Amino acid sequence: MRLSICLTAALAFCAYSGQSGAKPAPAAKAAFQLNETTWTYTDKGVKVRESIDADGNYIENALSGKHVDHGTAVMKDGKACFTSAMTEEGEMCWTTSPVEIGHSMNTVSDKGDKLKVTRVKYVPMSMQK
User: Fold this and answer.
1) What's the pTM value of the predicted model, to 2 decimals?
2) Of residues 70, 40, 39, 77, the one with CA closest to residue 56
3) Which residues lie across from 40 on neighbouring strands?
4) Residues with Cβ < 8 Å from 5, sequence gap 6 or more?
């Protein structure tokens, strides 16, 4: 597999270098990813931390230690979509933008709910009582 990647890269480089005056194509913008991210925010007066693991499962715990919610998270059409395993609300999607660790973004749900979330260093979580 590594050999295939190296050969493809070498061929692409040779093809480009033979074109005098050609400009390289702009780098593709990386898509926003939820997997292996952790966020903090305040929801209805409760300060929470939410982590999404590598498989797209999320756990939301209050900073006080109480388990708040868990379920699955996926990206759809540029939005972060969450489906709780604890409620019957169904999928809820939120707007996203690229956010570095330590920075915040304002997000709006499809239902019009607003939330300010801060990305923090990824921490795998477990359900607490």
Assistant:
1) 0.72
2) 70
3) 49, 118
4) none
Q: d(Cα 46, Cα 100) in Å, to the nearest integer?
A: 23
Q: Which two tokens stand for residue 48?
A: 């929470």
Cα separations (Å) of 99 from 15, 58, 59, 114?
35, 18, 20, 17
Please check whether residue 110 is in contact with residue 92, taking contact to mean a CB–CB distance below 8 angstroms. Answer: yes
Q: What is the mean pLDDT of the chain?
A: 81
- Model confidence at 92: pLDDT above 70: yes
* 81 within 8 A of 66, measured Cβ to Cβ: no
- Per-residue pLDDT at 30: 61
